[in-house]
Design brief:
By secondary structure, this protein is an alpha+beta fold. It has four helices and eight strands, in the order E-E-H-H-E-E-E-H-E-H-E-E. Helix content is 26%, strand content 38%. Strand 4 and strand 5 form a beta hairpin. The longest helix is centred in the middle third of the chain and has 15 residues.
Length: 168
């Protein structure tokens, strides 16, 4: 499955979304390190791409260069967005939104009833992005992030509640 989207009306650049492969991991780990205080190690991504049958990861490419990625899990009918990141120079251009949309579509196609994710309380941009897709806060996890002891919001998008905020 490869999906293409035009980045914006000002350019003719095409953003291609495709499943992540083992060959993508050096670029993915670089983006992960640029994006998070406690980045996942290479071994975690290797396991997700090669062993975890419940996982599906996607990369976003612009001109054959990986500019972002998103990961999902499906456990019974429960979807999870595990990780999403965009390279620093491409942030604020809508790539994160496209990646979240891809994760939602993937999990919906796999018959998830709902999607869960965790997000840092301080990450207002991400919280607002998830809300724009119909996610809502259902729980506060105190001290969830080990690197800073920061709290996390647990957010849910329930497909049974409404389809009005699917984002597509």
């Amino acid at each position: 499955m490869v999906r293409e989207r035009t980045r914006d009306t000002e350019t003719s650049n095409i953003l291609t979304i495709r499943p992540m492969s083992i060959e993508d991991l050096p670029q993915v780990v670089k983006i992960e390190r640029e994006s998070y205080r406690s980045p996942w190690p290479l071994e975690d991504f290797v396991r997700e791409v090669t062993i975890n049958t419940r996982a599906q990861y996607f990369v976003a490419l612009e001109d054959d260069r990986i500019v972002g990625f998103v990961g999902t899990w499906l456990l019974a009918d429960e979807g999870h967005i595990t990780n999403v990141a965009v390279t620093p120079e491409k942030r604020g251009k809508g790539y994160g939104k496209i990646l979240i949309l891809e994760a939602i579509k993937c999990l919906r196609e796999k018959q998830a009833s709902y999607i869960i994710l965790e997000v840092r309380v301080s990450n207002e941009k991400a919280v607002n992005l998830y809300k724009s897709f119909g996610f809502r806060v259902i729980q506060l996890r105190k001290g969830y992030y080990m690197d800073s002891n920061e709290d996390a919001y647990v957010m849910i998008k329930d497909f049974k509640e409404s389809d009005e905020n699917l984002g597509y």
